[in-house]
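Ticket #4471: structure output looks truncated?

Reporter: J.K.
Steps to reproduce: submitted the chain below (263 residues) through the standard prediction queue, then opened the result file.
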Amino acid sequence: MTTTTIHLAAERPELMQIGQDFCATMLPDALVQPSELANLTMFMDDPEAEHDLIVLVMHADENGQLTPNSATVQSIMTSTIPVLVLRDTPNPNHPLQRIVVPLDGSTTASQAIPVASRIARRLHLPVQFVMVIDPSRVIPPAYTYDPDAWSLIEDLRETSHWALQQSEEIIRRDGVQVDSSIVFGPINASLQAMIDPTDLVVMCTHGPKRHGLRYSDSVTQRTLVAIPAPMIVMRASQGQSAIQEGYAACSWIEPLRNGVQMA
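Returned output as attached by the reporter:
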């Protein structure tokens, strides 16, 4: 098995101990290389760093939230290798209870599945998939009270359930305990209600030049900034999917691309 190299850095020198404790507990077999925050860009831009992981400890406000437009957050969103973000909240190294993977029906989001599976096997943790359907993004306001329009929501629910079953099958083949949930409501608020500080969140991002969208519109970035739980952010590879053939035919792919994309 190839040894994972961890590039460990912190926004403040006094936060390095949080990262060192986390690595010693969760990744004891990894090779930890302390680094200055200013030097992380050389690792984030290295496409050859296949077996590397960045562990970055960030300063959070009293609510456990990060500054959304900081240069560090933007660098995380464009990194070519996965970044595990910790923050200096109370009890930052409490035992992890599960791995949470938000999915949205896209091939981008699905690429977090094999990563979550590997981590789950290594840490002996269960995996929780979650899909959020926001009715206000699917049904135009003028049709909110039209019973026929709500058939769209039922179609999405059924397709989401089918997609989650496929995702669960992938994880179970690896011998990992898995469960899934479909939640209705605003995407970010729903995710925030689902995720606990004892969870490890794994999400993918499109990386730079995402169809002209600003990073502030990215659900991955908004989750990273707002939810005080450890989180792995990784850039998805173009054209790859962990889901079985037929997943791209989900009827809700197109509505999500028109405004409810989660990655």
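Triage note (M.O.): checked the attachment and the full token line is present. The first strand starts at residue 5 and ends at 10.
Status: closed, working as intended.
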